[in-house]
Specification:
five-stranded parallel beta sheet, 16 helices, Rossmann fold, 416 residues
Amino acid sequence: MTWDSSKTEYELTKWFTPSKPATNNYVDRGPLDRTIFREFAQQGRQVLVYGPTGAGKTSMVLDNLEKLKTRYQTKSIRVTMTNTTTVESFIAEVAYKLQLTRMVQSVETKETSVNTSAALKIINWVSANLGGQKKQIQQDIREQYTGPDDFTILEEALFKRNTILVVDDMENLTGTADELRIRLAEIAKNMSDDAVNYEQSYAKIVFVGIATTAEQLWHDVESLKSRLATISVPYLNAHESQKIIQTGWQQAQLSGSIKQVEKTAYIASGIGKVVHELGQKTGYAAVDDGSQVIRDRYTEDAIHEVFEVNELDYEEQLNKAKNKTSTKTTVRNYVLYAMANDDRTKMTIQDILRAVNELRDADDKKANTISPALTQLKSAKFDILSNDRNSWQFKDPMFKAYVREHKDELLLKKND
């Protein structure tokens, strides 16, 4: 059969999606997926899925919502937070995605004790068939929710529609967005309490954010803590990254070696976006060269293209941190090598020490031999690492990927 390069290019755009959540090429993440699905299926349980940017949180949420839909006939809507999202814009988007029209009425009421009147606000969310030229008259209302508050109405609509609301990128709700985050925490708490009244509904709020999101929500509504399952999603491991690349290339009818798959996955450092981008760009290079076989230079070109935007900054940052001579390898070099070469997002001092001691063939070195290097790499001069209690990580995960590509430069000499 004649190879169709245009068909290959189409499949590459379908199976590698660096700019949006993975749907076609989602890789099962084992126990983590099972945990998330079981929390989704727990009636009255609200869920926060958190982790570093690029870990695949949204992809995991959407995949498990599809499984929930199959088993419990649930529906879902997703709203992405930005630094300009307000209570009003959030409500407008949710109503739109629920295909409900929001209407506000002011009803004049007579005060009995005094000769005055006041306006009572009544909010209606309706689903209507509108026909003809005079839509305001020819209106067949199929569904209506009424109340004095939008979030009370939203809760009822979600329960009655068996719908999960996914609130993505919660970390963007800062500063003036505090009011919205508080309202979301309140509705999540209320939905846990009121779930007993909707025995057939699996409606809930699923928050997607970073680690500090949980603390913010608990601070807003302390009683939410016992009602909210918090699930941490790490970066992809080597096997998961390799499977995404293999699947994409196979679906695009491209042939690559195990070594090429492993290298591509390794450089991507478990960052979902980078895994998909490297897989796709490597495939594009094959298409442009008229080849069904992945060649090493395609992968090399793809890696260079991904880092090209920040190449100069990353090169300067690495050169500043590493030793300049060819006669000695400094402890900073060992630390950078060990942390870049490890698949874990965070490493304890003990983890780093073991890896560094292995590099310098010394089992008797203590933690105080690497502490100064860690402190230096965290300092404003280098600004490469960050730490949380006893755990250390690269501040920029893409820089970790860059160090992986250049790690051999760090070991100028095998021994101190």
